[in-house]
Specification:
Layout (H helix, E strand, L loop, with lengths): L1 H7 L3 E2 L4 H13 L4 E8 L12 E2 L5 E9 L2 E10 L4 E6 L1
Antiparallel strand pairs: 1-3, 2-4, 4-5, 5-6
Length: 93
């Protein structure tokens, strides 16, 4: 989850490019060892365009699930914005 977060936060994004960025994030993280499933969603309601028509991806915009299979042990991790804590929280679920 840390790789997903730190690799992509700050990337230029707009409402027209959000879907392709989600796909790129999924495909990139799926290359990591032991990753079996990846799903990434960008909260379009949080996108804000600057004067040039795009914004930057923020951690709070990312909702991601990653399933890891290591030696038969399966773990699901999630990155999701916690509004109460005002923090993009990574957790095992």
């Amino acid at each position: 989850m840390g790789a997903l977060y730190h690799q992509f936060v700050g990337a230029p994004v707009s409402s027209t490019t959000a879907a392709s960025l989600e796909k790129a994030m999924q495909e990139s993280i799926s290359l990591q060892p032991y990753v079996r499933e990846v799903e990434v969603k960008i909260d379009r309601d949080m996108l804000a365009a600057n004067v040039f028509g795009y914004g930057e991806l923020e951690g709070r915009m990312i909702d991601a699930h990653v399933v890891i299979d290591y030696q038969g042990e399966i773990v699901t991790a999630r990155l999701q914005y916690d509004r109460e804590k005002d923090y993009p929280l990574m957790s095992l679920i």
